[in-house]
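REVIEWER CHECKLIST
Item 1: Sequence provided? yes
Item 2: Single chain? yes
Item 3: Sequence as submitted:
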Amino acid sequence: MTTTATPAPARRGRPGHSLDSLLDVAVAAFNERGYDATSMDEIATRLGLTKSAIYHHVSGKAELLRLAVDRALDALFAVTEEPGATTGRAIDRLEHVVRRSVHVLTAELPFVTLLLRVRGNSEVERAALQRRREFDRIVTDLVRAAVDEGDVRPDVGPAVISRLLFGTVNSLTEWYRPDGGLSADDLADALVATTFRGLRTRS
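Item 4: Structure as written out by the authors:
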Protein backbone atom coordinates (compact mmCIF):
# COMPACT_ATOMS: atom_id res chain seq x y z
CA MET A 1 0.00 0.00 0.00
CA THR A 2 1.40 3.37 -0.93
CA THR A 3 0.74 6.64 0.76
CA THR A 4 1.03 10.12 -0.65
CA ALA A 5 2.92 12.64 1.42
CA THR A 6 1.13 15.88 2.07
CA PRO A 7 3.15 18.69 0.48
CA ALA A 8 4.49 21.35 2.80
CA PRO A 9 2.56 24.61 2.60
CA ALA A 10 4.16 27.20 0.36
CA ARG A 11 5.65 30.26 2.00
CA ARG A 12 3.48 33.20 1.14
CA GLY A 13 4.00 36.88 1.40
CA ARG A 14 1.65 39.76 0.98
CA PRO A 15 -0.64 39.33 -2.06
CA GLY A 16 0.78 40.98 -5.16
CA HIS A 17 4.42 40.44 -4.20
CA SER A 18 6.05 37.27 -5.47
CA LEU A 19 9.59 36.17 -4.76
CA ASP A 20 10.53 37.33 -8.26
CA SER A 21 9.21 40.84 -7.68
CA LEU A 22 10.95 40.94 -4.30
CA LEU A 23 14.23 39.94 -5.96
CA ASP A 24 13.82 42.58 -8.67
CA VAL A 25 13.46 45.32 -6.06
CA ALA A 26 16.26 44.00 -3.86
CA VAL A 27 18.70 43.68 -6.76
CA ALA A 28 17.90 47.21 -7.93
CA ALA A 29 18.65 48.49 -4.43
CA PHE A 30 21.87 46.46 -4.16
CA ASN A 31 23.08 47.81 -7.51
CA GLU A 32 22.20 51.41 -6.66
CA ARG A 33 23.47 51.57 -3.07
CA GLY A 34 25.72 48.52 -2.70
CA TYR A 35 24.81 45.33 -0.90
CA ASP A 36 26.35 46.28 2.44
CA ALA A 37 24.71 49.72 2.47
CA THR A 38 21.21 48.38 1.68
CA SER A 39 19.09 47.46 4.68
CA MET A 40 16.06 45.22 4.82
CA ASP A 41 14.14 48.31 5.99
CA GLU A 42 14.93 50.05 2.70
CA ILE A 43 13.88 47.02 0.65
CA ALA A 44 10.64 46.82 2.63
CA THR A 45 10.00 50.53 2.06
CA ARG A 46 10.55 50.20 -1.67
CA LEU A 47 8.08 47.31 -1.76
CA GLY A 48 5.56 49.00 0.50
CA LEU A 49 5.77 46.08 2.92
CA THR A 50 6.81 45.40 6.45
CA LYS A 51 10.02 43.46 7.02
CA SER A 52 8.02 40.62 8.50
CA ALA A 53 6.18 40.24 5.16
CA ILE A 54 9.53 39.85 3.36
CA TYR A 55 10.53 37.12 5.80
CA HIS A 56 7.63 35.04 4.49
CA HIS A 57 9.75 34.68 1.34
CA VAL A 58 13.37 34.70 2.52
CA SER A 59 15.33 34.34 5.73
CA GLY A 60 17.18 37.62 5.27
CA LYS A 61 19.35 39.84 3.11
CA ALA A 62 22.01 37.17 2.56
CA GLU A 63 19.44 34.83 1.05
CA LEU A 64 18.31 37.58 -1.30
CA LEU A 65 21.90 38.00 -2.46
CA ARG A 66 22.36 34.25 -2.89
CA LEU A 67 19.18 33.89 -4.93
CA ALA A 68 20.15 36.85 -7.10
CA VAL A 69 23.70 35.77 -7.96
CA ASP A 70 22.60 32.15 -8.41
CA ARG A 71 20.03 33.30 -10.95
CA ALA A 72 22.80 34.85 -13.06
CA LEU A 73 25.21 31.95 -12.55
CA ASP A 74 22.61 29.27 -13.25
CA ALA A 75 21.78 30.95 -16.56
CA LEU A 76 25.46 31.11 -17.55
CA PHE A 77 26.13 27.49 -16.65
CA ALA A 78 23.01 26.42 -18.57
CA VAL A 79 24.64 27.91 -21.69
CA THR A 80 27.61 25.55 -21.30
CA GLU A 81 25.26 22.55 -21.37
CA GLU A 82 23.41 23.48 -24.56
CA PRO A 83 24.05 21.34 -27.67
CA GLY A 84 25.92 24.19 -29.35
CA ALA A 85 28.38 24.23 -26.46
CA THR A 86 28.91 20.49 -26.26
CA THR A 87 29.18 19.26 -29.86
CA GLY A 88 31.31 20.25 -32.83
CA ARG A 89 34.67 21.95 -33.09
CA ALA A 90 35.89 23.80 -30.03
CA ILE A 91 36.01 27.18 -31.80
CA ASP A 92 32.32 26.87 -32.67
CA ARG A 93 31.45 25.78 -29.14
CA LEU A 94 33.40 28.75 -27.79
CA GLU A 95 31.56 31.12 -30.09
CA HIS A 96 28.25 29.61 -28.96
CA VAL A 97 29.09 30.18 -25.30
CA VAL A 98 30.11 33.78 -25.96
CA ARG A 99 27.01 34.53 -28.02
CA ARG A 100 24.64 32.94 -25.55
CA SER A 101 26.36 34.64 -22.60
CA VAL A 102 25.56 37.96 -24.25
CA HIS A 103 21.92 36.85 -24.36
CA VAL A 104 22.05 35.95 -20.67
CA LEU A 105 23.49 39.36 -19.86
CA THR A 106 20.79 41.22 -21.75
CA ALA A 107 18.00 39.07 -20.29
CA GLU A 108 19.30 39.20 -16.71
CA LEU A 109 21.14 42.53 -16.77
CA PRO A 110 20.58 43.63 -13.14
CA PHE A 111 21.43 40.16 -11.83
CA VAL A 112 24.62 39.84 -13.90
CA THR A 113 25.61 43.37 -12.89
CA LEU A 114 25.26 42.42 -9.23
CA LEU A 115 27.23 39.21 -9.76
CA LEU A 116 30.13 41.14 -11.29
CA ARG A 117 30.26 43.42 -8.24
CA VAL A 118 30.67 40.57 -5.76
CA ARG A 119 34.03 40.80 -3.99
CA GLY A 120 34.06 37.85 -1.58
CA ASN A 121 33.15 39.68 1.62
CA SER A 122 30.76 36.99 2.82
CA GLU A 123 30.17 33.26 2.51
CA VAL A 124 27.55 33.87 -0.18
CA GLU A 125 29.94 36.07 -2.15
CA ARG A 126 32.82 33.60 -1.84
CA ALA A 127 30.59 30.80 -3.13
CA ALA A 128 29.59 32.98 -6.09
CA LEU A 129 33.24 33.75 -6.88
CA GLN A 130 34.04 30.04 -6.77
CA ARG A 131 31.31 29.35 -9.31
CA ARG A 132 32.59 32.19 -11.50
CA ARG A 133 36.05 30.62 -11.45
CA GLU A 134 34.53 27.31 -12.52
CA PHE A 135 32.78 29.02 -15.44
CA ASP A 136 36.08 30.69 -16.40
CA ARG A 137 37.76 27.27 -16.35
CA ILE A 138 35.16 25.86 -18.76
CA VAL A 139 35.77 28.74 -21.17
CA THR A 140 39.56 28.42 -20.85
CA ASP A 141 39.31 24.70 -21.61
CA LEU A 142 37.33 25.49 -24.75
CA VAL A 143 39.99 27.98 -25.85
CA ARG A 144 42.72 25.42 -25.18
CA ALA A 145 40.87 22.79 -27.21
CA ALA A 146 40.43 25.25 -30.09
CA VAL A 147 44.18 25.94 -30.03
CA ASP A 148 44.89 22.20 -30.07
CA GLU A 149 42.56 21.80 -33.08
CA GLY A 150 44.44 24.53 -34.93
CA ASP A 151 41.56 27.05 -35.05
CA VAL A 152 42.85 29.60 -32.52
CA ARG A 153 46.25 31.26 -32.64
CA PRO A 154 48.68 29.67 -30.19
CA ASP A 155 50.76 32.75 -29.34
CA VAL A 156 48.37 33.99 -26.62
CA GLY A 157 47.65 31.87 -23.55
CA PRO A 158 44.17 30.30 -23.30
CA ALA A 159 43.53 31.83 -19.87
CA VAL A 160 44.38 35.30 -21.22
CA ILE A 161 42.09 34.81 -24.21
CA SER A 162 39.28 33.67 -21.92
CA ARG A 163 39.67 36.73 -19.71
CA LEU A 164 39.79 39.07 -22.69
CA LEU A 165 36.66 37.56 -24.22
CA PHE A 166 34.61 37.70 -21.05
CA GLY A 167 36.08 41.02 -20.02
CA THR A 168 34.48 42.30 -23.21
CA VAL A 169 31.20 40.50 -22.53
CA ASN A 170 31.10 41.74 -18.93
CA SER A 171 31.84 45.32 -19.97
CA LEU A 172 28.40 45.42 -21.59
CA THR A 173 26.91 45.87 -18.11
CA GLU A 174 28.54 49.31 -17.99
CA TRP A 175 26.81 50.74 -21.01
CA TYR A 176 24.16 48.44 -22.47
CA ARG A 177 20.58 49.61 -21.98
CA PRO A 178 17.59 47.45 -23.01
CA ASP A 179 15.85 50.48 -24.55
CA GLY A 180 18.89 51.58 -26.53
CA GLY A 181 17.89 49.98 -29.82
CA LEU A 182 20.43 47.14 -29.84
CA SER A 183 19.13 43.60 -29.59
CA ALA A 184 20.98 40.71 -27.98
CA ASP A 185 21.69 39.34 -31.47
CA ASP A 186 23.10 42.70 -32.58
CA LEU A 187 25.42 42.77 -29.59
CA ALA A 188 26.51 39.16 -30.01
CA ASP A 189 27.19 39.64 -33.72
CA ALA A 190 29.28 42.76 -33.08
CA LEU A 191 31.24 41.17 -30.26
CA VAL A 192 32.01 37.98 -32.19
CA ALA A 193 32.98 39.93 -35.31
CA THR A 194 35.47 42.09 -33.42
CA THR A 195 36.99 39.45 -31.14
CA PHE A 196 36.99 36.17 -33.03
CA ARG A 197 38.59 37.69 -36.12
CA GLY A 198 41.76 38.20 -34.11
CA LEU A 199 41.57 34.80 -32.45
CA ARG A 200 41.20 32.58 -35.45
CA THR A 201 44.24 31.25 -37.27
CA ARG A 202 44.56 32.35 -40.88
CA SER A 203 43.64 29.69 -43.44
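Item 5: Key structural point noted by reviewer: The chain is about 65% helix and 0% strand.
Item 6: Recommendation: ____
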